[in-house]
Amino acid sequence: MDAIRPHHHQKREKRASLAKEDRLSQAFQKNKFEQSVSLLSWAYNEEDSIMEFLGKASCLMDDTVLDYEIILIDDGSTDRTYEIASKFQEKNPKVKIFKNEKNLNVGISSQRAIQKASKEFLFWQTVDWCYDIANLRIFLEYLKTFDIVQGVRRKPVAVRIKLFKPIAAVLKLFGMKHLTKRSDTISKAIVSVVNYILIRILFRVPLSDFQNVTFYPTQWIQSIQWEARSSFANPEGLIKSYWAGKTIKEVPINFIPRVKGGGKGTKVTSMINSVKDIFRLWFKWIVLRRRGLVEKGKIYRLNPSEWE
Fold first, then answer.
1. Which of the four CATH numbers 3.30.750.24, 3.90.550.10, 3.40.50.10140, 3.90.226.10 does domain 35-307 have?
2. Model pTM?
3. Which of 67, 156, 252, 293 could pair covalently with 36 via S-S, beta carbons 3.0-4.6 A apart?
Protein backbone atom coordinates (compact mmCIF):
# COMPACT_ATOMS: atom_id res chain seq x y z
CA MET A 1 0.00 0.00 0.00
CA ASP A 2 2.83 2.37 0.90
CA ALA A 3 4.43 1.62 -2.48
CA ILE A 4 1.28 2.78 -4.24
CA ARG A 5 0.98 6.13 -2.45
CA PRO A 6 3.89 7.86 -4.23
CA HIS A 7 2.33 6.87 -7.56
CA HIS A 8 -1.02 8.45 -6.58
CA HIS A 9 0.82 11.49 -5.28
CA GLN A 10 2.60 11.92 -8.62
CA LYS A 11 -0.74 11.67 -10.42
CA ARG A 12 -2.26 14.36 -8.21
CA GLU A 13 0.76 16.61 -8.83
CA LYS A 14 0.49 16.07 -12.56
CA ARG A 15 -3.25 16.86 -12.53
CA ALA A 16 -2.60 19.98 -10.45
CA SER A 17 0.16 21.04 -12.83
CA LEU A 18 -2.06 20.52 -15.88
CA ALA A 19 -4.89 22.45 -14.22
CA LYS A 20 -2.53 25.32 -13.49
CA GLU A 21 -1.29 25.34 -17.08
CA ASP A 22 -4.89 25.34 -18.29
CA ARG A 23 -5.77 28.31 -16.05
CA LEU A 24 -2.71 30.20 -17.27
CA SER A 25 -3.59 29.39 -20.87
CA GLN A 26 -7.17 30.61 -20.35
CA ALA A 27 -5.93 33.80 -18.70
CA PHE A 28 -3.53 34.37 -21.58
CA GLN A 29 -6.27 33.75 -24.13
CA LYS A 30 -8.63 36.15 -22.32
CA ASN A 31 -6.00 38.86 -22.56
CA LYS A 32 -5.95 38.58 -26.33
CA PHE A 33 -8.15 40.74 -28.58
CA GLU A 34 -11.25 38.60 -29.05
CA GLN A 35 -12.39 40.03 -32.40
CA SER A 36 -10.78 38.92 -35.64
CA VAL A 37 -8.06 41.01 -37.30
CA SER A 38 -6.29 41.09 -40.67
CA LEU A 39 -2.71 42.36 -40.89
CA LEU A 40 -1.99 43.63 -44.41
CA SER A 41 1.28 44.27 -46.20
CA TRP A 42 2.68 44.56 -49.71
CA ALA A 43 6.17 43.86 -50.99
CA TYR A 44 8.25 44.56 -54.06
CA ASN A 45 11.70 42.92 -54.28
CA GLU A 46 12.01 42.41 -50.53
CA GLU A 47 13.83 39.06 -50.45
CA ASP A 48 16.18 40.33 -47.72
CA SER A 49 13.33 41.38 -45.43
CA ILE A 50 10.32 39.17 -46.14
CA MET A 51 11.20 36.18 -43.94
CA GLU A 52 11.96 38.36 -40.93
CA PHE A 53 8.77 40.36 -41.51
CA LEU A 54 6.51 37.29 -41.69
CA GLY A 55 8.14 35.80 -38.59
CA LYS A 56 7.73 38.99 -36.60
CA ALA A 57 4.16 39.52 -37.83
CA SER A 58 3.16 35.95 -36.97
CA CYS A 59 4.62 36.16 -33.45
CA LEU A 60 2.96 39.50 -32.76
CA MET A 61 -0.45 38.37 -33.99
CA ASP A 62 -0.20 35.03 -32.16
CA ASP A 63 0.47 36.90 -28.92
CA THR A 64 -2.17 39.58 -29.43
CA VAL A 65 -5.21 38.28 -31.34
CA LEU A 66 -7.32 35.13 -31.03
CA ASP A 67 -8.32 34.99 -34.71
CA TYR A 68 -6.15 36.57 -37.39
CA GLU A 69 -4.78 36.39 -40.91
CA ILE A 70 -1.78 37.98 -42.61
CA ILE A 71 -2.46 39.21 -46.15
CA LEU A 72 0.65 39.76 -48.29
CA ILE A 73 0.55 41.24 -51.79
CA ASP A 74 3.67 40.50 -53.84
CA ASP A 75 3.72 43.51 -56.15
CA GLY A 76 5.30 41.78 -59.14
CA SER A 77 8.66 41.14 -57.51
CA THR A 78 11.48 39.99 -59.80
CA ASP A 79 13.59 38.51 -56.98
CA ARG A 80 12.84 35.61 -54.56
CA THR A 81 10.28 37.48 -52.44
CA TYR A 82 7.32 35.31 -53.51
CA GLU A 83 9.29 32.07 -53.23
CA ILE A 84 10.50 32.85 -49.70
CA ALA A 85 7.04 33.97 -48.57
CA SER A 86 5.46 30.80 -49.99
CA LYS A 87 7.86 28.64 -47.97
CA PHE A 88 6.91 30.53 -44.81
CA GLN A 89 3.23 30.04 -45.64
CA GLU A 90 3.76 26.27 -45.37
CA LYS A 91 4.61 26.79 -41.67
CA ASN A 92 1.81 29.27 -40.98
CA PRO A 93 -1.33 28.79 -43.12
CA LYS A 94 -2.75 32.00 -41.66
CA VAL A 95 -0.45 33.78 -44.12
CA LYS A 96 -2.25 34.38 -47.43
CA ILE A 97 -0.17 35.48 -50.42
CA PHE A 98 -1.39 37.11 -53.62
CA LYS A 99 0.88 38.05 -56.51
CA ASN A 100 0.42 40.92 -58.97
CA GLU A 101 1.37 39.96 -62.51
CA LYS A 102 3.33 43.21 -62.77
CA ASN A 103 4.46 45.99 -60.45
CA LEU A 104 1.39 48.16 -59.69
CA ASN A 105 2.91 50.18 -56.83
CA VAL A 106 1.67 50.83 -53.31
CA GLY A 107 -1.72 52.42 -54.03
CA ILE A 108 -3.16 49.55 -56.05
CA SER A 109 -1.44 46.89 -53.93
CA SER A 110 -2.84 48.33 -50.70
CA GLN A 111 -6.34 48.47 -52.17
CA ARG A 112 -6.05 44.86 -53.32
CA ALA A 113 -4.90 43.79 -49.86
CA ILE A 114 -7.90 45.57 -48.31
CA GLN A 115 -10.32 43.76 -50.61
CA LYS A 116 -8.73 40.39 -49.77
CA ALA A 117 -9.14 40.87 -46.00
CA SER A 118 -11.80 38.64 -44.42
CA LYS A 119 -11.60 39.52 -40.70
CA GLU A 120 -13.63 42.08 -38.73
CA PHE A 121 -10.85 44.69 -38.46
CA LEU A 122 -7.71 45.38 -40.44
CA PHE A 123 -4.50 47.36 -40.29
CA TRP A 124 -1.21 47.37 -42.17
CA GLN A 125 2.50 47.31 -41.53
CA THR A 126 5.38 47.84 -43.95
CA VAL A 127 7.59 44.87 -44.84
CA ASP A 128 10.61 46.70 -43.38
CA TRP A 129 8.63 47.06 -40.11
CA CYS A 130 9.14 50.82 -40.05
CA TYR A 131 6.34 51.52 -37.57
CA ASP A 132 6.50 50.64 -33.88
CA ILE A 133 3.31 48.70 -33.12
CA ALA A 134 4.52 47.14 -29.86
CA ASN A 135 1.33 48.52 -28.23
CA LEU A 136 -0.87 46.72 -30.75
CA ARG A 137 -3.14 45.25 -28.08
CA ILE A 138 -3.94 48.75 -26.76
CA PHE A 139 -4.53 50.15 -30.25
CA LEU A 140 -6.97 47.35 -31.08
CA GLU A 141 -8.89 47.95 -27.85
CA TYR A 142 -9.64 51.51 -29.00
CA LEU A 143 -11.63 50.05 -31.91
CA LYS A 144 -14.35 49.20 -29.38
CA THR A 145 -14.82 52.93 -28.71
CA PHE A 146 -13.77 54.72 -31.91
CA ASP A 147 -14.45 53.98 -35.57
CA ILE A 148 -10.83 54.36 -36.68
CA VAL A 149 -7.45 54.41 -34.94
CA GLN A 150 -4.67 56.42 -36.61
CA GLY A 151 -0.97 56.31 -35.81
CA VAL A 152 1.05 59.52 -35.36
CA ARG A 153 4.84 59.69 -35.54
CA ARG A 154 6.39 61.33 -32.50
CA LYS A 155 10.03 60.20 -32.19
CA PRO A 156 12.58 62.98 -32.96
CA VAL A 157 14.76 62.82 -36.05
CA ALA A 158 18.43 63.69 -35.69
CA VAL A 159 19.39 66.58 -38.00
CA ARG A 160 22.94 65.73 -39.04
CA ILE A 161 23.21 67.63 -42.32
CA LYS A 162 23.95 71.35 -41.79
CA LEU A 163 21.99 72.34 -44.91
CA PHE A 164 18.74 71.01 -43.40
CA LYS A 165 19.12 72.49 -39.91
CA PRO A 166 17.63 75.90 -40.83
CA ILE A 167 14.64 74.17 -42.44
CA ALA A 168 14.03 72.09 -39.32
CA ALA A 169 14.32 75.26 -37.22
CA VAL A 170 11.72 77.03 -39.38
CA LEU A 171 9.33 74.11 -38.96
CA LYS A 172 9.69 74.33 -35.20
CA LEU A 173 9.15 78.11 -35.27
CA PHE A 174 5.84 77.58 -37.01
CA GLY A 175 4.65 75.20 -34.30
CA MET A 176 5.16 72.06 -36.36
CA LYS A 177 7.81 70.42 -34.20
CA HIS A 178 6.04 67.06 -34.40
CA LEU A 179 6.40 67.12 -38.19
CA THR A 180 10.18 66.72 -37.89
CA LYS A 181 9.68 63.35 -36.22
CA ARG A 182 8.59 61.44 -39.26
CA SER A 183 11.46 59.45 -40.79
CA ASP A 184 14.94 58.02 -40.34
CA THR A 185 16.61 60.98 -42.07
CA ILE A 186 15.70 64.65 -42.14
CA SER A 187 15.63 64.69 -45.97
CA LYS A 188 12.94 61.99 -46.03
CA ALA A 189 11.18 63.79 -43.18
CA ILE A 190 11.03 66.99 -45.27
CA VAL A 191 9.38 65.07 -48.12
CA SER A 192 6.89 63.72 -45.58
CA VAL A 193 6.31 67.18 -44.11
CA VAL A 194 5.63 68.77 -47.51
CA ASN A 195 3.23 65.94 -48.34
CA TYR A 196 1.47 66.39 -44.99
CA ILE A 197 1.12 70.19 -45.33
CA LEU A 198 -0.19 69.87 -48.87
CA ILE A 199 -2.89 67.38 -47.87
CA ARG A 200 -3.80 69.24 -44.68
CA ILE A 201 -4.24 72.59 -46.46
CA LEU A 202 -5.99 71.34 -49.59
CA PHE A 203 -8.45 68.93 -47.97
CA ARG A 204 -8.85 70.63 -44.57
CA VAL A 205 -8.86 67.43 -42.52
CA PRO A 206 -7.16 68.21 -39.17
CA LEU A 207 -5.29 64.93 -38.62
CA SER A 208 -1.73 64.90 -37.25
CA ASP A 209 -0.54 62.21 -39.70
CA PHE A 210 -1.79 60.79 -42.98
CA GLN A 211 0.96 58.26 -43.73
CA ASN A 212 1.12 55.82 -40.84
CA VAL A 213 -0.54 52.65 -39.57
CA THR A 214 -4.34 52.91 -39.67
CA PHE A 215 -6.84 50.52 -38.04
CA TYR A 216 -10.22 50.20 -39.77
CA PRO A 217 -13.41 48.17 -39.54
CA THR A 218 -12.99 45.96 -42.62
CA GLN A 219 -16.55 46.35 -43.85
CA TRP A 220 -16.25 50.13 -43.85
CA ILE A 221 -12.90 50.45 -45.62
CA GLN A 222 -13.94 47.87 -48.23
CA SER A 223 -16.98 50.00 -49.05
CA ILE A 224 -14.87 53.00 -50.09
CA GLN A 225 -14.75 53.75 -53.80
CA TRP A 226 -11.03 54.23 -54.36
CA GLU A 227 -9.87 56.91 -56.77
CA ALA A 228 -6.16 57.29 -55.92
CA ARG A 229 -3.64 55.13 -57.78
CA SER A 230 -0.60 56.11 -55.73
CA SER A 231 0.45 56.29 -52.06
CA PHE A 232 -2.26 58.95 -51.68
CA ALA A 233 -4.60 55.97 -51.20
CA ASN A 234 -3.83 56.00 -47.47
CA PRO A 235 -4.83 59.68 -47.00
CA GLU A 236 -7.83 59.11 -49.28
CA GLY A 237 -9.20 56.48 -46.89
CA LEU A 238 -8.80 58.84 -43.92
CA ILE A 239 -10.26 61.85 -45.73
CA LYS A 240 -13.33 59.96 -46.89
CA SER A 241 -13.78 58.45 -43.43
CA TYR A 242 -13.68 61.92 -41.83
CA TRP A 243 -16.13 63.26 -44.39
CA ALA A 244 -18.42 60.30 -43.61
CA GLY A 245 -18.66 61.33 -39.96
CA LYS A 246 -16.34 58.71 -38.48
CA THR A 247 -14.61 59.14 -35.11
CA ILE A 248 -10.81 58.90 -35.35
CA LYS A 249 -8.53 58.29 -32.37
CA GLU A 250 -4.86 59.27 -32.72
CA VAL A 251 -2.23 57.07 -31.03
CA PRO A 252 1.58 57.31 -30.97
CA ILE A 253 3.28 55.02 -33.49
CA ASN A 254 6.91 55.99 -33.96
CA PHE A 255 9.08 55.49 -37.01
CA ILE A 256 11.74 52.75 -37.03
CA PRO A 257 14.66 53.25 -39.48
CA ARG A 258 14.98 50.66 -42.25
CA VAL A 259 17.90 48.26 -41.81
CA LYS A 260 17.65 46.05 -44.91
CA GLY A 261 16.85 46.89 -48.54
CA GLY A 262 15.80 50.27 -49.84
CA GLY A 263 12.62 52.26 -49.35
CA LYS A 264 10.38 52.95 -52.34
CA GLY A 265 8.12 55.67 -50.94
CA THR A 266 10.47 58.60 -51.54
CA LYS A 267 11.49 57.67 -55.09
CA VAL A 268 10.89 60.48 -57.60
CA THR A 269 8.29 58.60 -59.66
CA SER A 270 6.35 57.62 -56.55
CA MET A 271 6.31 61.21 -55.30
CA ILE A 272 5.24 62.58 -58.69
CA ASN A 273 2.36 60.09 -58.92
CA SER A 274 1.26 60.99 -55.40
CA VAL A 275 1.29 64.73 -56.12
CA LYS A 276 -0.70 64.15 -59.32
CA ASP A 277 -3.34 62.26 -57.36
CA ILE A 278 -3.46 64.97 -54.68
CA PHE A 279 -4.16 67.80 -57.13
CA ARG A 280 -6.45 65.74 -59.38
CA LEU A 281 -8.67 64.71 -56.48
CA TRP A 282 -8.48 68.11 -54.81
CA PHE A 283 -9.84 69.66 -58.02
CA LYS A 284 -12.62 67.06 -58.24
CA TRP A 285 -13.61 66.97 -54.56
CA ILE A 286 -13.05 70.56 -53.45
CA VAL A 287 -13.18 72.77 -56.56
CA LEU A 288 -15.90 70.88 -58.45
CA ARG A 289 -17.51 69.70 -55.17
CA ARG A 290 -17.94 66.19 -56.53
CA ARG A 291 -17.49 64.38 -53.23
CA GLY A 292 -21.05 63.63 -52.15
CA LEU A 293 -22.62 64.55 -48.84
CA VAL A 294 -20.10 65.60 -46.18
CA GLU A 295 -20.76 65.05 -42.49
CA LYS A 296 -17.53 65.87 -40.70
CA GLY A 297 -16.37 63.35 -38.14
CA LYS A 298 -14.55 63.95 -34.87
CA ILE A 299 -10.81 63.59 -34.32
CA TYR A 300 -9.49 62.79 -30.87
CA ARG A 301 -6.02 64.30 -31.10
CA LEU A 302 -2.97 62.63 -29.68
CA ASN A 303 -2.20 63.68 -26.12
CA PRO A 304 1.43 62.70 -25.45
CA SER A 305 0.98 62.90 -21.68
CA GLU A 306 -1.41 59.92 -21.86
CA TRP A 307 1.46 57.75 -23.12
CA GLU A 308 4.32 58.92 -20.94
1. 3.90.550.10
2. 0.81
3. 67
